[in-house]
Amino acid sequence: MASSNGTRLKVDKSGRIVVSKRLRDHLGIHAEAELEVTPQSDGIFVRVVDQEPALIKVDGLWVHRGTARADADWEHVIEDVRSERIAAVSKR
Questions:
Q1: Which CATH number fits the domain that encloses residue 7?
Q2: CA dihedral for 58, 64, 27, 37, sign (positive or negative)
Q3: What is the secondary structure of 12-31 as a DSSP string?
Q4: Residues 39 and 65 in one domain
Q5: What is the C-alpha to C-alpha distance for residues 31 and 35, in angstroms, rounded to an integer?
Q6: Given CB 3.0 to 4.6 Å as the disulfide criterion, which of 7, 8, 20, 50 pairs with 1?
Q7: Range of the domain at 39
Q8: pLDDT, tens digit, for every residue of 1-46?
Q9: Domain endpoint, select from 33, 48, 63
Q10: Are strands 6-7 and 55-58 parallel, antiparallel or unpaired?
């Protein structure tokens, strides 16, 4: 069952939500995966809890291993990072 906002799921009489194999495979959800549910004004938001840290240090630099948001304002992000680095170096 598809809707304009995504996939529709049903809650069974025991309160469980069944996620189709196709959707689990697409999202990388495996058996025993931990999900986080966040209440919102118009419903709930469900996301997979990262099992590995999103940031790791590689050769002294922090590297983000996640995926970027499609609507990210990269100029703003880069400027913020530069400002933080300049402030950190200035304090030394």
A1: 2.10.260
A2: positive
A3: -TTS-BPPPHHHHHHHT--T
A4: no
A5: 11
A6: 8
A7: 2-48
A8: 444 457 888 899 999 988 888 888 888 888 888 898 999 998 888 8
A9: 48
A10: unpaired
Residue 24 CB burial class (10 angstroms; 0-12, 13-18, ≥19): middle
pLDDT band at 80 (very low <50, low <70, confident <90, very high): confident
Instruction: Look at the chain and report how many structural domains it folds into.
Output: 2
Q: Write down the residue that tokens 């986080």 correspond to.
A: 36
Q: DSSP code of 51? A: S
Total length of the chain = 92
Report the alpha-carbon angle 2-16-42, nearest 5: 55
SS3 70: coil
| CA dihedral over 41, 46, 50, 54, signed as positive or negative | negative
Instruction: Please check whether residues 44 and 12 belong to one and the same domain.
Output: yes
Given a contact cutoff of 8 angstroms between Cβ atoms, the answer to whether 64 and 54 are in contact is: yes
Same structural domain, 6 and 43: yes
